[in-house]
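Task card 7
Instruction: Convert sequence to C-alpha cells.
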Amino acid sequence: MTEGDGGDDGDASGGEREPTGDDGAELTYADAGVDIDASEAATAALIGAVGEGEGDYAGLLDIGDRYLALATDGVGTKLLVAEALGDYSTVGVDCIAMNVNDLVAAGVRPVAFVDYLAVDEPDERFAEQVGEGLARGAELADMELVGGETAVMPDVIKGLDLAGTCAGLATKDAVFDGEAWPGDALVGWRSSGIHSNGLTLAREAATRDHEYADPCPFEGYETVGEALLEPTRIYTDLLDPMREHGVRGAAHVTGGGWTNLTRLGANRYVVEDAFDPQPVFEFVQSEGGVSDGEMYRTFNMGTGFVAAVDPDAAASLAAETDGRVIGRVEEGDGNGDGSDGNGDGSDGDGDDGSVAVRGLVL
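Output:
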C-alpha cells in the first residue's frame, strides 16, 4: 500500500538552500500537512489488521499460469488546483497514470481500469472534463476503461475526490523479481513534472506569494496552476523493453520521492546523473524555502521511473527508450557511507537501505 497524496532548475548540487518565503521559515511536507512517517505507520497498522498479500507496487493473485494484479490510487490534492482554475481536463490522466505506473513497476501489463468519482453535488461540466482525461489516460496506457462509480455525498465530500483501480495480467516469469543486486546499473526516465505526489507541499509553497491564476514565472505555462497541473507521465511503453533487457526491479518515484529506490532492497543506491529538475521544482523550492533533502524526499525531481538492470544491458535499454544510466547499486552496509541514514542529521539505522542522489543521503 502506498500513500496517495504523496495520492522545480533547483539547487540540486547537495548544498542546502537558504530559507525563503513570506516569513522566512523553511517549509516541510509535514508542515504543509502530510507527515510521511505518520502515514507509513498508519498504513502499516492497516496492513497488520488485514494481512499482507503478495506483491509491492501491486497486489498479485495467483490464477494458475499467470498473475492477476491490482493497484489502486487517487489524484490527491492536485484536485484542489484543478478546482481553483476550473480545469479538470487533465486529472483523469493523473488518475490512470498513478495506477498503471505501479503495475509497470511490478512488471505487469495493465488491461482494465475502473474509476471512483465522489462529489458533493453533480456537475456535468467537470464530470465531462474528468471523463475526457480518463479516456485520454486509458488510450495512452493502451488499456480499457471498463466502468466506474459516481457517488454524491454532500455530508462527506467537499468538492470532489477521484480515484481508481487498475487490473493487469502477467505470466509468472514476466513479473519482475523486485530485488536489485549490488553491481546493477540504475536506468532512469524523465518525469513530466511534479506528477501527482507532494502537491500538498507544492501548493503551500506556490501560494505563499502567488495565486494559481497568476502568470507563471517560468516558460512553458501561462499560469502557476497550469504548471502544477502538468499531467503525470505514463510509462507503459517501457514494459516490453525492460523485460527484454532483463530488468530485475523497478521503482515508480512517487510519494516519498527518491526513497522509493529502497523498495528494491536494502542496498545503497548511488545516483550521480539524474535528469535535471524541471523549473517548477525550483519555483516550489524557492517559494517555500524547502531544503534540498526535503525536495528529494518528497518529489521525483525530474526522474519519474527507475529500473535496476545488469550493467551490460543498461546502455542499450537507455538508448532504446530515451532513458539514461543514472547510477548504480552498491552493497548496503547500514548507512552506506558512514553518515546518518536520514540525510537530516538524525540517527538512522540504515537497515532498509539508503539513497545518495547528487551528494544528498536520504
